[in-house]
Amino acid sequence: MGKFKLKCLKCGREYGQEYRLTCENDNAFLRAEYFEKKLVLRNQPGLGRFHSWLPVQEELTTDAGPITYKSEAFARELGLSNLYIGFSGYWPERGAFIKTCSFKELEAHPTMQLLKETGGKAVVLASAGNTGRAFAHVSALTGTDVYIVVPESGASKLWLPEEPTESVHLISMSPGNDYTDAINLAGRIAKLPSMVSEGGARNIARRDGMGTVMLDAALTIGKMPDHYFQAVGSGTGGISVWEAAMRLRADGRFGQKLPKLQLTQNLPFVPMYNAWKEKRREIIPELDMKDAKKQVEETYATVLTNRTPPYGVMGGLYDALTDTDGIMYAITREEALEAKALFESLEGIDILPPSAVATASLLKAVEEGNVGKDETILLNLAGGGYKRLKEDYTLYQIEPVATAKNPDISLDELNI
Ligand SMILES: Cc1ncc(COP(=O)(O)O)c(C=O)c1O
């Protein structure tokens, strides 16, 4: 007996339980429809708790999962009475055990499990750093092969809290290539026989894994928050919590109003901010990311630099922002660094650059009156605890098996 079906958001065509990224009729997203309409928590330590709304048959037993807690010191500083922090990272004192330190692990576990349950090919993905680390970790735990393509700027982020296994294949790119070049090369490798593309935002296991941040928050708070803050590169996290919120609304126990998405990008690379400012569904490269590669190089939170985000596609970020009357922010490096120092000193945990960007956007939202002092706010700190992890674990750098000069390199030459 299955537990979900896939449905195309445009034509309504339905598919069974398979690892499918696209509809055969059109380009819109597919979405999982779960047969369990109410969230029934399972007795698992991490994200396996949310099995009802994860597209896998076997319950995930990992202790990695999102946590939510009510902020005191930082909330007081901002004058907020109901600020909740969603933390995806390593912070054992608060029950957070994501040892690759970002919410990308929430997507890696269900994706690898779904692949195993539906054919078991090797998975190929591009990463600016955090996603690759998460998939490499799950590969090291399960032995399933993964091929990870990273730009040079992401290579140093490819470490593991255990010794890398032979199942982890890292392909790094020469300087001058960015995250989008890595996406293009990964797309070509994924066409080889016995390989399958991870799929990015099109992968429902990725989205529903990331959506557990919203599920955990609603359970902790007792209802859905009024506002949701996150830094976005592709926007998949924003899409995911929107979808999770719609499931919670249908469940009926967590409120009927969808959280307002308040999402942020990091200057100078802010294409979705620019498009949303004009309420445009299309990103126009010449207007919204002029001189993109240079902008990407100058951006502090490099994982937020996706040149081809799923913004305008049906079911993508534009739809999520429209449906929740969302707001987007553009944050400078200095604002992010200031917010990071403030948060870390008050809350006692280190956070990654994208989380610093998200924190700065909350400061801005308070300043601009985009949240009420007593409204319920969820700040998704999607990465953190790296310094804390190093106190407990030895970290191992993953060595590349090949280096690509450019995304069009002959795959024979790569010899993978
Ligand atoms: C910690 C963290 N926050 C935010 C993001 C942005 O996520 P997305 O690309 O899904 O918008 C990333 C992406 O890697 C990340 O690692």
Describe the 3D structure:
The structure is a single chain. With about 425 residues, this protein is of the alpha/beta class. The chain has helices at about 75-80, 105-115, 130-140, 150-155, 180-190, 205-210, 210-220, 235-250, 270-275, 285-290, 290-300, 315-325, 335-345, 355-365, 385-390, 410-415, and strands at about 5-10, 15, 30-35, 65-70, 85, 90, 95, 120-125, 145-150, 160, 170-175, 195, 225-230, 260-265, 325-330, 375-380, 395, 400-405. The chain has three domains: about 5-55, no CATH class; about 65-100 and about 205-385, Rossmann fold, CATH 3.40.50; about 120-195 and about 395-415, Rossmann fold, CATH 3.40.50. The chain contains 16 helices and 18 strands. The chain has a six-stranded mixed sheet, with helices on both faces. Strands 12-8-9-11-18 form a five-stranded parallel sheet. The protein has a three-stranded antiparallel sheet with strand order 2-1-3, with no helix packed on it. β13 (about 225-230), α8 and β14 form a beta-alpha-beta unit. α2 crosses α6 (about 205-210) and α8 packs across α12. The two termini are about 40 Å apart. Pyridoxal-5'-phosphate binds near residues 231, 234 and 354. Homotrimer.
